[in-house]
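Entry 0007
Protein: YceI family protein
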Amino acid sequence: MLVINNKIAKVLILFIVFNLTTRISWGQEYKLVNISSELSIFGTSTLHDWEIKVENIKGSINIESLIVNSLKIEIEAESLKSGHKGMDKNTYKALETDTYKTIVFQMPNSSELSEQSEGKYLMEAKGDLTISGTTKNITLKFNVERNNDQIKLKGEKTFNMTDFNIDPPKALMGTIKTGNEITVKYHVTFNK
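Output (structure tokens):
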């Protein structure tokens, strides 16, 4: 009986060592936590400034030491909410959400973290942003906070809607016009 237990113990130890080695060599994957993440879009119009919040966001990040191997953030297009049904309807029409259900940022190549202080880093991620069927290569700059089980990314990016072939929404037969430039501010959390 003791011999069998020793064999089982050896197999278990080999299994654990293999799993740890695989995890270390492939990095750690973290999943985006929707409930503790915020992403908002800010813009202007001929009437007033506006803000739209994203309700449904998902994604993942894979980090090995100071290298981010992959990053993907996906937004459900019709989870953009302004608090005004008419504005939301115009937003969905401009984004063609009947056809294009998601907005996606994906980093195809790895990126290095630049350490600023203990657990705090800067990252410049070059990746593909796809909105309404148009994909553009953009650069996002992140402030990164990292501890054992959690990673937080924070930053903002300004661009024009027309960069993605989106006509800025209009209301009341064109008397209210949305400005072309928007700023996306994000503070997203990933857990193991």
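Curator remark: Residues 116 and 122 are 7 Å apart (CA to CA). The chain is about 20% helix and 50% strand.
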